[in-house]
Amino acid sequence: MTDITAIYQGELNSLDQIKVSPLSRAYTFSDSIYEVIPYFSGKPLCYEEHLDRMMQSAHLMSLNVNFESAVSDIQKLAATLSNQDGYVYYQISRGVDLIRSHLYQDDLEIERFGYGMPARFPSSAISAMLCEDDRWGKCNIKSTSLLGNVLAMNKAKSQGCQEVVMHRDGFMTEAGASNVFYFDSSGSVRTSSLSENILPGITRQILIKALENTLYSVKEGSCAISDFHDAPCIWLTSSTKGMLPLKNLIGTDYKLEENYKGYLDVVELFNSAMKLHLEVLE
């Protein structure tokens, strides 16, 4: 990991040289938030939207963050990606305790950590597994409390899958690290309405906006998992996946209809919108 540039409390270093206290509240309580900002040929996708979501997560957790320092950190990491594809991972915790305690001190120094990672983003259809959503109840906060996701996704891995599609009481919430869209049997594009159980994905919103006033305007609402049996196409959206179709979904009768016209049309609209959202920081 010596070639990966990281930052801790404003100081750049190689990732393997970063030292974090075991009493960091990120470690002891997952008392922390994060963002993943994708870069394409060195250009960030929806930079301001990612910052806004990080600020909203900080607000919901009462984290008193100096975002000028956070922005400076992110820009330093982004510079290391040059003209490459990749992403900046950035994490903010409440700080480091003197003694581990559920009750945090009001004067803790906010802890900032991140790194820049060159990466290739997936493009081929993947397999997923249907599962119950047993995560904590405020998934709209981009918290590092991801144990529920980790357990579900590794169970899916044992069945040859790369993702999970989660549901509560028979209604879809989201995937382990993505939002979920699908065509229902009538040809409508569906996705779940935002709630505390669903992270407001940046790419999710790009797609919804791109499809407004087209034949494929998205219908948000309660999405029954029984819809999946007859769905011609289910796909995921995220900052690092873009739009990624599922070839099958274990636990349902779903099979991807290759070259489904509606999906191909949606991909074209999405790709046009993505080009408009790639920004160069001044």
CATH class category name of the largest domain: Alpha Beta
User: What strand line-up does the widest sheet have?
Assistant: 9-8-7-14-13-10-11-12
* Rg over alpha carbons: 19 Å
Number of helical elements = 6
Give start-end ranges of low-pLDDT stretches.
none
What is the overall silhouette?
A: globular
Q: What's the name of the CATH homologous superfamily of the largest domain?
A: D-amino Acid Aminotransferase, subunit A, domain 2
Task: State the share of residues found in helices, binned by percent.
Answer: 10-25%
CATH fold group of the largest domain: D-amino Acid Aminotransferase, Chain A, domain 2
The CATH architecture designation of the largest domain is Alpha-Beta Barrel
Category from helices, strands and their pairing:
alpha+beta
Largest sheet: 8 strands, mixed
Approximate strand percentage: 25-35%
Q: Would you report the number of β strands?
A: 14
The total domain count is 2
How would you state the average pLDDT, rounded? 94
Straight-line distance between termini: 30 Å
Please provide the ordered H/E string of secondary-structure elements: EEHEEHHEEEHEEEEHEEEH
Summarize the structure.
The protein contains 6 helices and 14 strands.
Describe the protein.
The strands form two sheets. Strands 9-8-7-14-13-10-11-12 form an eight-stranded mixed β-sheet. A six-stranded antiparallel β-sheet has the order 2-1-6-5-3-4. The chain is of the alpha+beta class and 282 residues long. Helix 5 (202-211) crosses helix 6 (261-277). The model has no long low-confidence stretch (mean pLDDT 94). It starts with a strand and ends in a 5-residue tail after the last helix. It folds into two domains: 5-118, 2-Layer Sandwich (D-amino Acid Aminotransferase, Chain A, domain 1); 126-277, D-amino Acid Aminotransferase, Chain A, domain 2. The protein has helices at residues 25-29, 47-60, 67-79, 147-157, 202-211, 261-277, and strands spanning 5-8, 11-14, 32-40, 43-44, 86-93, 111-118, 126-132, 163-168, 171-175, 179-183, 189-192, 219-221, 233-238, 242-250.
